[in-house]
Specification:
Structural class: mainly alpha
Number of helices: 4
Number of strands: 0
Order of helices and strands: HHHH
Shape: rod-shaped
Distance between the termini: 25 Å
């Protein structure tokens, strides 16, 4: 079993000429930037509502933008970030092999 694994590792290293594929590709970085932008928009939607007099109540802190929209945007941004990290596009060779099999 160990010989089979080491043989497979050697074969894959020979195919790549000793070079390893990058961990993240351009698509990953684009998705990460989109996720970061959505997170920043969520934080910006949550800000504001400062009151000049601390003894007065301002109902502005309970508006829909702060209680509903901002958390949804922030959750969506986090989901996009996870997808961006986990995304691994297949190579064209792998796609061709899968369609032939």
């Amino acid at each position: 079993m160990a010989t089979l694994i080491s043989t497979q590792k050697n074969a894959s290293a020979d195919n790549n000429n000793g070079k390893r594929a990058p961990l993240f590709r351009k698509t990953n970085y684009i998705l990460m930037a989109i996720g970061l932008a959505v997170l920043i928009i969520g934080f910006l939607c949550m800000r504001g509502g400062a009151v000049s007099d601390p003894n007065t109540f301002d109902g502005e802190i309970f508006n829909t933008r702060r209680l509903v929209v901002a958390p949804i945007l922030m959750f969506a941004g986090l989901v996009i970030e996870v997808i961006a990290i986990m995304w691994h596009p297949r190579n064209k060779k792998e796609q061709e092999e899968n369609t032939e099999a």
